[in-house]
Amino acid sequence: MSDPTSAPEPGQPTTRDLPVLFLPDVVILPGMVVPVELDLDEGAARAAVDAARTTTDDELLVAPRLDDRYATYGVVARVEQVGRFSSSRPAAVLRAVRRARIGSGVPGPGAALWVETTQAPEPEVTERVRELVKDYRSLVIADLQRREAWQVVDQFSALTDPDAIADTAGWAAYLSAERKRELLETPDLEARLERLVEWTREHHAEAEVSDRIGAEVREGMEKTQREYLLRQQLAAIRKELGEGQPDGSDDYRARVEALVATDGFPAPVAEALEREVDKLERSSDQNPETSWIRTWLDTVLELPWTKRTVDTTDIAAARAVLDADHHGLEDVKDRIVEHLAVRARRAERGLELVGGRGSGAVLLLAGPPGVGKTSLGESVARALGRDFVRVALGGVRDEAEIRGHRRTYVGALPGRIVRAVKEAGSMNPVVLLDEVDKVGADQRGDVASALLEVLDPAQNHTFRDHYLELDLDLSDVLFIATANVVEQIPGPLLDRMELITLDGYTEDDKVAIARDYLVPRQLERAALTSDEVEVTDDALRELAANHTREAGVRQLERLLAKAFRRAATRLAEGATAPVRVDADGLRDLVGRARFTPDAHERTSVPGVTTGLAVTGLGGDVLYVEAGALPEGSPALSLTGQLGEVMKESAQIALTFVRSHAAELGIDVSVLDHPVHVHVPAGAIPKDGPSAGITMVTSLASLATGRPVRGDVAMTGEVSLTGKVMPIGGLKQKLLAAQRAGITEVFVPARNEPDLDDVPAEVLDALTVHLVSDVRDVVAGALEPAEDESGVRDDGAAAAA
Ligand SMILES: Nc1ncnc2c1ncn2[C@@H]1O[C@H](COP(=O)(O)OP(=O)(O)OP(=O)(O)O)[C@@H](O)[C@H]1O
């Protein structure tokens, strides 16, 4: 046991007995100055401080109080001052001087507990220690900005002794009492610094992460708060201006939630809607994107995602609807009904519709204007109990019209297909694609290929509109296409469709259609009744024959409308009802007849022949004129906007006539002169091979000087050897011939089967010559020869 009152000899490892003060919760390291409350621990603190007064340097040992054992080390501390805290509780200020090992308890004066203490040896300052001190310093300095570190920095900026530097850890708020105790109990400087550096580095890294997170959170909060404030202000300004709800996002949220909750709502669409509403709620009103999002939401919300109508499966009832809406067209109605029956059956068996002709996928109604294609489409919808929409494709040049513009375009819209479905209000409407022959392919993307995707049952259950960016199921849509000229439909598109042709009506048909459908409808439009206006069949026939010359009934319907407007005016002016619309009175009501049979007049000159052609407007008569040109002109001049094929026909015809002059009874010298072939009307482009025999006849007529008979018309391709080859559109051509007042026609023998489609009424009115050699045409079509001299004179006249 050592002398408790003597101070340690310098340089000696000293052992002294000192009163001890165990402090709970705090760990004091050498170098620290701390106040201690004296009432602490039921007077034990006061006893220890009092006892310290009895030692040489007013010293005592301060050590942490542990739960499970005695601490092995403490610090020797000097009592600097005894007084009161500002709270007036008694306290002492202790300065911790050095580390000391705690030995066993010893008896001592006063109430205090005394122990034997051994001063820790002077630590060795190794190279490693210096490095560690450097690390520690730099870590602490890096931490300068951090509040937790300031006390430490404060303490050690003046220090040079590594041991003292290491013990500044006592101030570090980031070290737990546990760790500080460990530092206290590690007298070995190197080991102590190692631990300290490791823990400081750990803290440093953690602090960095938490700083970063803190900064991000702060920034985010500032931004949201700012936006919130701005929006509140904006709402207030709007309210002042009386502009109402500035931001309908709540409204959208509710609408979306209500909609996606409906049965069978497609999940991907629901997701997309929710995503967009989220976006809307996050974005501010000034953002241009906000209005795009709104428009998009409006579009998607208005689509009939889950709505569909139930098809009428009663085929007889469907037929009855078609019959009620349209006169005649028996074969067309048969085909439509068959198509519907197959569709219904496939649907019942759960079979998919497949593309290709006759597959039942898409109907194509082809024919001239006004024959009822559009109204048949409407009828089909009515027969099935489906909604009906018409999509006009005429003049569509841009793929985006079909498939929509991407949303990033200014004023972007969904394509026509999506708009049609929206307009229909159900997912299984009848969509009439009007005038598919008028779509074009150009540099802006291929309209036809977009349509292919729409019509192809293999693809159209996931049709993707650029604007919606969602899959739309079109597989239940019944597409019906219409076209005037089948040849102008892009091949791949035509391949997917089931073609039904409507060739036009006979005069009898027109009279019946007018009487049963057009007259009642137009009377109603003019607010007239059948008691007020009486229309005779003769008047209708006269209108169909001489006031109009068309395959369909569009013009006829217009003239009826005109007649009824006049009739209404007359009634208003006091005429007595009923006003009679008869053949004689037509001139007053609709003006003069515009079409009178003119073939006789046109063909009275040698070199002019009546041909038959099919145009976009249906069948028509067309005249081929041949004339001789003066010497020195090109051998063959062709005018009338003829296409390549038609020009070749003219050359073939000329070659044939020249080389068979003798057989045809022609003076070949006339044809040695240059020849001009013209096909009026000059403004309309024409093409095709079917005017071949007409050209031969014209040239033969020119060369013989014998005019072509005015009651004759013809159609047929010709070969260089004079064979007559088959042509298309026979029914339309014969209808046109009858309309034009022709009574005899020459047609290719190989077209005979097509005569089955021609209405009996037309065949009754026409004498049809089936020919396979053009010489028979020439023989039958030219007026009989007069005497030799007369012929020459006529020929010369025509040539001049
Ligand atoms: N067989 C018919 N029975 C009754 N009405 C008919 C018949 N054919 C045509 N119509 C009537 O003639 C009018 C013209 O028909 P529609 O507009 O359907 O012709 P379209 O062939 O579609 O012509 P476009 O090719 O110009 O579209 C309609 O009012 C239609 O009801």
Automatic annotation (TrEMBL):
Alphabetized SUPFAM superfamilies for the sequence: P-loop containing nucleoside triphosphate hydrolases (SSF52540), PUA domain-like (SSF88697), Ribosomal protein S5 domain 2-like (SSF54211)
Catalytic activity: Hydrolysis of proteins in presence of ATP
Keyword Nucleotide-binding: yes
GO cellular component: cytoplasm
SMART domains in the cross-refs: AAA (SM00382), LON (SM00464)
Compartments where located: Cytoplasm
Lon N-terminal domain ranges (all copies): 18-204
Keywords for this protein: ATP-binding, Cytoplasm, Hydrolase, Nucleotide-binding, Protease, Serine protease, Stress response
Cross-referenced CDD domains: RecA-like_Lon (cd19500)
Gene3D superfamilies assigned: 1.10.8.60, 1.20.5.5270, 1.20.58.1480, 3.30.230.10, LON domain-like, P-loop containing nucleotide triphosphate hydrolases
Induction cue: By heat shock.
Keyword Hydrolase set for record: yes
Active site: S690, K733
Molecular function (Gene Ontology), one example: ATP-dependent peptidase activity
Functional note: ATP-dependent serine protease that mediates the selective degradation of mutant and abnormal proteins as well as certain short-lived regulatory proteins. Required for cellular homeostasis and for survival from DNA damage and developmental changes induced by stress. Degrades polypeptides processively to yield small peptide fragments that are 5 to 10 amino acids long. Binds to DNA in a double-stranded, site-specific manner.
Protein family (similarity comment): Belongs to the peptidase S16 family.
Subunit structure: Homohexamer. Organized in a ring with a central cavity.
Protein name as annotated: Lon protease
Organism: Marmoricola endophyticus
